[in-house]
Design brief:
This protein is α+β, with helices and mostly antiparallel strands and 99 residues long. It contains 3 helices and 4 strands. It binds zinc ion.
C-alpha cells in the first residue's frame, strides 16, 4: 500500500493528491464519494505512518479523501518511509556463499 502513495523519486503523496479532492479534509468517514457517488468508502491505514486511519479511499473509483491536512499527511508518511524496504535492494546471496 505504501508503494501506492510513494512516487519513485520519493515524493510521498503526489500520486495520492492527484487522486484526491484537493484540500478537502474529512475527519470522519465521508458518506459518499464526491467523484463517483459511491457509498463504499474505505479507511486506509499505513503501517508505521499513523496508528489509525490515515486517509479515505473510494472502493469504486479509488478517489482519495484526506483525513488530515496535506502537510500532516506527508509528515505521517515520512514516518513510514524508513520502514519501507524494496525487496530488490536486499541483494542476493548465492547459497554457496552462506556462512
Ligand atoms: Zn468514487
Amino acid at each position: 500500500m505504501l508503494e501506492d502513495v510513494i512516487s519513485p523519486d520519493g515524493n510521498l503523496v503526489d500520486n495520492l493528491l492527484e487522486l484526491s479532492d484537493g484540500d478537502i479534509v474529512s475527519k470522519a468517514r465521508p458518506n459518499k464519494c464526491k467523484r463517483c457517488g459511491g457509498v463504499k468508502i474505505l479507511g486506509i491505514e499505513i503501517m508505521g505512518a499513523y496508528d489509525g486511519i490515515l486517509f479515505w479511499e473510494c472502493d469504486i473509483c479509488e478517489n482519495t479523501i484526506l483525513r488530515f491536512k496535506k502537510e500532516n499527511t506527508e509528515k505521517y508518511l515520512e514516518n513510514a518511509k524508513g520502514l519501507w524496504t524494496n525487496p530488490s535492494d536486499w541483494g542476493y546471496v548465492k547459497p554457496s556463499e552462506f556462512n
